[in-house]
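Ops channel
N.P.: pipeline sanity check, posting one input/output pair.
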């Protein structure tokens, strides 16, 4: 393991622990009555699993030098952005494509700039990870598809719950990353 991959691994471990602890305070989910959120998560896991099975462990080669350094910076910047968003959304956080009981339209913190900062932060984190461990490019592509689908579903749900406020919010914010997307 290179020092760069150790930094990325440590970053993911810290992120996972903080995320799980913060999830304990989230509002309960409302039943959706649809298969799509569970089905989309399952499809994501199956695609990633199939990619791992298809490639040898030598595909987990790691890079060093400037590309790996940039990867570490992007990984940590994405995690910091996601944690900021998680703090800002507070008890309203939920798994992708889930609905909260008594939802609130959060527009503070990174939500003042983008509607899906957690997904955008995840894209940046996974891009950084892929720069350190190139095999994760496959995971990145799969994750981008999953989170783009999740965001589209959530946009429809938010428009249904907050028709006027969310429409105005969409006009003044980007979808995933400030000033970009």
């Amino acid at each position: 393991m290179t020092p760069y991959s150790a930094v990325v691994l440590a970053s993911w471990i810290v992120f996972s622990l903080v995320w799980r602890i913060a999830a304990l305070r989230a509002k309960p989910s409302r039943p959706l009555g649809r298969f799509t959120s569970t089905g989309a998560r399952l499809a994501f896991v199956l695609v990633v699993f199939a990619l791992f099975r298809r490639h040898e462990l030598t595909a987990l080669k790691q890079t060093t030098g400037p590309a790996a350094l940039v990867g570490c910076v992007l990984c940590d910047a994405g995690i910091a952005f996601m944690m900021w968003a998680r703090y800002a959304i507070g008890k309203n956080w939920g798994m992708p494509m889930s609905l909260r009981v008594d939802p609130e339209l959060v527009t503070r913190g990174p939500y003042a700039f983008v509607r899906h900062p957690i997904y955008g932060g995840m894209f940046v984190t996974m891009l950084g990870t892929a720069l350190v461990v190139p095999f994760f490019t496959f995971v990145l592509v799969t994750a981008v598809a999953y989170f783009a689908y999740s965001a589209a579903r959530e946009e429809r749900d938010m428009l249904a719950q907050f028709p006027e406020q969310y429409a105005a919010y969409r006009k003044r914010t980007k979808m995933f990353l400030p000033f970009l997307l």
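N.P.: looks fine end to end. The mean pLDDT is 82.
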